[in-house]
Amino acid sequence: MAEWLAQPQIAILVTGGLVGTAAALLGPFLILRRTAMLADAISHAIILGILLVWLTTGQISGPIQIAGAGIAGVVCVWLIEVISNTGRVKEDAAIGLVFPAMFAGGVLLLNLYARNVHIDVHTVLLGEIGFVWLDKVTVAGIEMPKAVLWMSVMTLINAAFVIAFWKELKLATFDPMLAAAFGLMPRLMFYVVLLLTSATAVAAFDAVGAVLFVAFVVVPPAAAYLLTDRLAAMMIIGIAISVFSSISGYWLADRWDVSISGMMALMTGVCLAIAVLAGPRYGLATQLLRRRDTRLMNDVRALMVHLHSHEETAERAEENIADALVTHLNWPEARARTVLARAIGRGFLERHGAALNLTEQGREMALSLLEPWRR
Predict the structure, then answer these.
(1) Any bridge partners for residue 321, and if so which?
(2) Which residues are CB-contacts of 234 (< 8 A; sequence separation ≥ 6)?
(3) If we measure between CA atoms, which residue out of 162, 178, 148, 204 comes closest to residue 28?
(4) What are the pLDDT tens digits along the chain (375 aa)?
C-alpha cells in the first residue's frame, strides 16, 4: 500500500475521493434543511479557530486543531442563529454578518502573529491538492500522505455517525417537531452535523482548500436531490458524483495543465448541470418531454372522441379518415402524423388505407371521456 500511495496521481485521486465522500455524507442533511450556505460560512470561520488553536497550543494540524476549528464553526452557526432569532435580520443577512467578521478576525490574527508559520489565507481557501503526496506520515509502519490519513479518519467518523444515527437523522431532517416530540433532540443532531462539517473542512483545507470542500458539500448532494427522492440513494449518488468529479477533474486538469482543485469543483458543476437538464423527474429536458407527451395524449383523446362521434353517422366516410385531421380538425400534417402514430402504437385505432377505425380500447377511451357530459 505504501508504494501505491507513494504515486502522486494515486495520492491526489484518493485524497479527492475521500474529501468528496466525507462531504457527501453530511451534505444531504444541509441541503434538505435548506442550510447549505452554512458550509460556506463554516469554511471561512474555521480560520479563526485554526489561529486560536495555534496561538494556544502551537499546533497547526492534528486532532486538537480539527476539534478547535470545528468548535469555531459551530460557534459561527450559533451566532448566526442568535442574530436571526432577534427578528431584526433574516438568516441570510445574519450569515453575511457573522462569517465575514470571523474570517476577518482570523486574517487579522494571521497577519499579526503567524506571518512565519505555514498558515496562510491562500492555503486555507484554495489549498494545493497536487502536493499532498509530499507531506507524509508513518502509521503502523505504512508511509502515507497526511491528507489521506486525516481524510480517512474523518470519512470513517462521518460514516459511523450517519450509520449509527440514521433513523434519528432522517426524522430530525424531515420533521424536527416530531423528532422533538419523541425526545430525539433534533437541534443537537443538527449541531453535531455542523461540528462534523467543520472538522471535515479543517481536515481538508490544507489539501483541497475551503472552496473545493464547499463544492463537494453542496453541489453533489444538490445534483443527487434532482435525481432521487430517497435519502439513502441521494447520499450514494452524491458520493458517486464526488468520486467521478475527482477522477475526471484530475484527468482534465492534467490534460489542460490547469488547477486540479478548480477542475474538480468545475466537474461537480457539470454534473449538477446534467442533473438540471436531464434528471429523470425534475430535469428541464425531462419536463419538456413530459409536457410534450401530455399534449400528444390530449390530441389522441380528442381524436378518439372525434372518431367515436362520427362512427355511426353518415359523415363517417368524410370524418373518420386521415385527411380529415388536416382539413376538419385544422391540425398541421406533422402533428396529424404524430398523433396517428401514437394512437396506432397504443392500440387505440387501426388504419385501413385512408379509413380510421376505433379498436375496442379506443372506443372505451372515447366513452370514458364522453360519459361525464352525458349525465
Answers:
(1) 355
(2) 28, 221, 224, 225, 227, 228
(3) 162
(4) 667 777 889 999 999 999 999 999 999 999 998 888 888 788 778 788 878 887 888 776 667 777 777 788 888 888 988 898 888 888 778 888 898 888 888 878 877 876 665 555 555 556 678 888 877 887 877 888 888 998 999 999 999 999 999 999 999 999 989 888 888 888 889 989 988 988 888 888 767 777 788 899 999 999 999 999 899 999 999 999 999 999 999 999 999 988 888 899 999 999 999 999 988 878 888 889 999 999 999 999 999 999 998 888 888 888 888 888 888 888 999 999 999 999 999 999 999 888 999 999 999 999 888 876 655
For 344-352, the CB contacts below 8 A with 24+ separation are 346/300, 348/300, 348/304, 349/303, 349/304, 349/307, 351/322
Yes or no: say if 25 and 166 are a contact pair by the CB < 8 Å rule. no
DSSP 117: S
296 in Cβ contact with 274 (< 8 Å):
no
Using the structure block, give the residue that is written with the C-alpha cell 434538505: 32
Closest CA to 260 of 219, 302, 211: 211
Cell digits for 31? 441541503
Contact 127, 209 (CB under 8 A): yes
With the CA atoms of 156, 197, 193 and 157 taken in that order, what torsion angle do they form, in degrees rounded to the nearest 10?
Answer: 10
Q: Are 142 and 1 in contact (CB under 8 A)?
A: yes
- Hey, what's the cell of 291? 409536457
- CA 161, chain centre distance (Å): 20
Q: Pick the closest to residue 246 from 12, 5, 8 (CA basis).
A: 12
Q: Provide the 10 A C-beta neighbour count for residue 326.
A: 14
Cα(190)–Cα(194) distance, rounded to whole angstroms? Answer: 6
**β-strand pairing of 349-352 with 355-358:** antiparallel
Q: DSSP strand E in the chain: where? A: 136-139, 142-145, 349-352, 355-358
pTM of this prediction?
0.81
Would you say 41 and 77 are in contact if contact means Cβ atoms under 8 Å apart? yes
